[in-house]
Amino acid sequence: MGVITWIILGLVAGFIASKIVDRHGSGILLDIVLGVVGALVGGWVFSLLGAHGVTGFNLYSLLVAVAGSTLILLLYHAVRRTH
């Protein structure tokens, strides 16, 4: 996947994850970063479970990226609430 594809996938995945966890978006730049990092984390977690990670610009990869982004947001909120 090219850089533009990662940015688009990251934006969509980050926005969806932000809506799931926070009920609002986090802003374009933060949604992109969240989505791209979420795709990497989601790909790693899915590969640990025996599934494929991000496979391209498709619905499955979006699911992986959203799952990873949601996991990151949930962990972030759990850590932030303890301090």
Q: Could you name the key traits of this structure?
A:
single chain, 83 residues, mainly alpha, 78% helix
List the helices and strands and how they pair.
Blueprint: H1 3-22, H2 28-48, H3 59-82
Query: What characteristic shape results from the CA principal axes?
Result: globular
Number of domains: 1
Fraction of helical residues: over 70%
SSE pattern: HHH
Given the structure, what is the number of helices?
A: 3
Give the radius of gyration.
12 Å
Structural overview:
The protein is mainly α. The chain has one domain. 78% of the residues lie in helices and 0% in strands. It has helices at residues 3-22, 28-48, 59-82. The model has no long low-confidence stretch (mean pLDDT 87).
Question: Can I get a quick summary?
Answer:
This protein has 3 helices and no strands.
